[in-house]
């Protein structure tokens, strides 16, 4: 059965792609893929697991050599799209209780403490190389801004580009002034995924500020809630399940800020995506319809009625074309609703975000 | 090598603006021969590749640079800029050549390289797994490099040390008032500004620690200890002294 085509053609399957991908036949892999219905608890990132396994230093070095050899066997385009050398170091960093142990040139039978079985380490690296399973799913976390967020199959891995949304929000809050006390208002993150933006914003808001993160996917809701608790922000941030504005009807006209990194990749581009993305990340979080604008436009149109006067909005888009289209759309169709619209580039210089205020 | 003393007499406004097409920055770059290699794709660079820069110096006069919308007016001001302003003067290399980015891409490409366009100085960081943190580290490094590399002209005859220099001096300095607070050490981000002012003075007195110490109300030994307390400061002073045929401080 061709899973990829199944995923692409069946809308019902889409939501559950994360649960049906048989990556490894080994049942001992601690970060294996199991149907979410049977595994309602979010997975613990590798680096937070207890170091209850041991192996000898020489066995560990043997693994390291094997893994390096395996990485050097991959084709050029894979090499080009990944930092396998660095990823291996990071995997070992997360696996070992004392990562410095690998600095020594000795090879002996001294025992080292591991957070997973040595066999699982072999399995995980095989998955990385042979299945192109994203490194972040392998170790169960992503370092994003100053956060370490738990991620797993079914949740989009937060991108470095998106880090900037938190800075944009922070600038608006610290700017204060004419738009009132936005930092102590209610903020909304639509399609929160791992909860990255919601948590980032939650940490820059004032004492009275609150964030609601919304996601349609039940895995995302669980993972985001877990991340919120890990940063002890459950009093400030709530995660709700639903489609875009659906769970937010009670907040109409009261929202101080609305941000989103919705799916924006045009459907036709999904097949050509880097394997780590196209084969493993949730299509639900990537596919933005024919031109990639379906969800952006939906959110943009709803934002006018959600935001209070002076409220801020920031959307991430696919790039220059999206930014221009959205900008023009808001300037013409929603002329009465929005003001101070801006297109903001990401750190790579690509026009990435549209920001503005509710009039 | 002898310290290349590039005195930028008039610093056109557009040099301070990133992304402004102009042949002049290239001319500037050729003069200061800043290494500008493309970011390697698969090999992470060492966390702190800055030593190759330490053999060159730039100089500005503090009144020479003007800019119509901010207060940039020389080397000292570069170091004093907010992170945001300083970043806006930089080319940021992260994953520039890699297509559409965003949701399209999964690459743990977190290394950040900043090229400060007005001076060509490059600072980079790759030791962290978060791009955000690497950017912050690269900015701290850039600030420190600007302090080390960009010289402001000061006149030793009429010299009075600025507050940021007084703040890094030990309490026993006779010209240091109580308004300076406790001594700022190398780990404090404000140290860069004081370090820059100290280097400006040492350059103005042709590398003589004894002469500089007098201007600062310190014994020669006390100023030497201050200089030796920070590796990059010591290196900068010693390179300058060597270029003047003087013995390095030990």
UniProtKB/TrEMBL annotation, chain A:
Protein name: RNA methyltransferase family protein
CDD domains: AdoMet_MTases
Region (Disordered): 24-43
Alphabetical list of SUPFAM superfamilies matching this protein: S-adenosyl-L-methionine-dependent methyltransferases
PANTHER family, sorted: PTHR47441, RELEASE FACTOR GLUTAMINE METHYLTRANSFERASE (PTHR47441:SF3)
Keyword Transferase in record: yes
Classification via InterPro entries: DNA_methylase_N6_adenine_CS, HemK-like, RF_glutamine_MTase_cyano, SAM-dependent_MTases_sf
GO molecular function: nucleic acid binding; protein methyltransferase activity
Any Pfam family the entry gives: PrmA
Keywords on record: Methyltransferase, S-adenosyl-L-methionine, Transferase
Gene Ontology biological-process entries: methylation
Family matches, as Gene3D superfamilies: Vaccinia Virus protein VP39
TrEMBL record, chain B:
Gene Ontology molecular function: translation release factor activity
Residue ranges constituting the Prokaryotic-type class I peptide chain release factors domain according to the UniProt record: 89-148
Pfam families documented for this protein: RF-1
GO cellular component, one term: chloroplast
Domain of life of the organism encoding this protein: Eukaryota
Similarity comment: family membership: Belongs to the prokaryotic/mitochondrial release factor family.
PANTHER family: CLASS I PEPTIDE CHAIN RELEASE FACTOR (PTHR43804:SF6), LD18447P (PTHR43804)
Protein name as it appears in the record: Peptide chain release factor class I/class II, Double-stranded RNA-binding domain protein
Organism of derivation: Artemisia annua (Sweet wormwood)
